[in-house]
Design goal:
Largest sheet: 5 strands, parallel
Number of helices: 6
CATH class of the largest domain: Alpha Beta
Oligomer: single chain
Bound molecules: zinc ion
CATH architecture of the largest domain: 3-Layer(aba) Sandwich
Strand order of the largest sheet: 3-2-1-4-5
Helix content: 25-40%
Distance between the termini: 30 Å
Number of strands: 8
CATH topology of the largest domain: Rossmann fold
Length: 159
Amino acid sequence: MEFKVIDASALLHSDFSCSNQRYLVPNSVMLEILDEKTRILAEQALKSGRLKILDPGEDSIKKVVSKASKTGDDSSLSKADVDLIALALEKKTVLLSDDYAIQNTARQLGLKVEFTAQEGIKKTVKWVKLCEGCGRKYEASTAGVCGVCGSRLRKHSSG
Ligand SMILES: [Zn+2]
């Protein structure tokens, strides 16, 4: 069966026990998963073979970065986001994500993107940004670096 590429918030919405669909996820996305529920789901799916960790090649990453800089999405895309799109591009498969910048860039590359959150229902996953240096928490929409220590901010699901 064909694999689909899945992001961290989509992982939380997937019911691995009720579907035969198999998924691919890059290492960088696994590292972004902080909340326990998603982590447990992901680990179970890895054990059962429903989920596989795979990293995209440099060529695909370069294509995604170049496209994102043209669409202006590059400032919104984390390393993990870029890896997700690059992996879907490389495997010529569907990408599951509710992230606007991911969807936009993926579509520009001719990829098919599926939503996981049901229409009309508010998403339950909240995103925050955490400072890589001091761990300070910021709103997901915060751009730039940490105002306290100047380190990079990374997007995380806060459960
Ligand atoms: Zn900081």
